[in-house]
Design brief:
The protein is of the alpha/beta class and 128 residues long. The chain has one domain: Rossmann fold (3-Layer(aba) Sandwich). It has 7 helices and 5 strands. It has a 5-stranded parallel beta sheet with strand order 3-2-1-4-5, with helices on both faces.
């Protein structure tokens, strides 16, 4: 299978956080799976670190590419197609980070690994 990790999923994996569900952990641990992390996640973590919501994330912000490489995750850059779909997706969900992740999940046929049920309003596959 192919997965896209939501920002909290990525952070919980890196931090070995117990809030990561068994299903999510199994999917991420699958050596045959394609596991992607979006540029959106880098932006969201850096933004939240800057405003003081992720004080612990200095190492991740300073070494994002190395953290991805060490974890065996693939980078998923944002394309104009992702951005256009994110802006056009129906629904009242206003979080631009989530809208971009949903668009990437849809266009790249990736299952989004997230606990956030707000994604259920988008036409994507969610695993938790």
């Amino acid at each position: 299978m192919s997965f896209l990790l939501d920002t909290h999923t990525f952070l919980w994996w890196i931090m070995a956080d117990a809030r990561l569900s068994h299903e999510a952990r199994s999917a991420i641990e699958d050596p045959d799976a394609l596991r992607c992390v979006s540029s959106v996640t880098a932006f969201e973590i850096a933004n939240k670190f800057r405003i003081g919501k992720l004080d612990f994330a200095r190492e991740i912000v300073d070494n994002f590419d190395t953290v991805l490489d060490d974890a065996g995750f693939q980078r998923l850059d944002i394309t104009p197609s992702h951005a256009l779909l994110a802006g056009q997706m129906p629904g009242n969900h206003k979080d631009p980070f989530d809208r971009l992740l949903a668009a990437q999940s849809k266009l790249e046929s990736l299952t989004l690994v997230t606990a956030d049920q707000a994604f259920d309003g988008f036409d994507i596959t969610r695993l938790w």
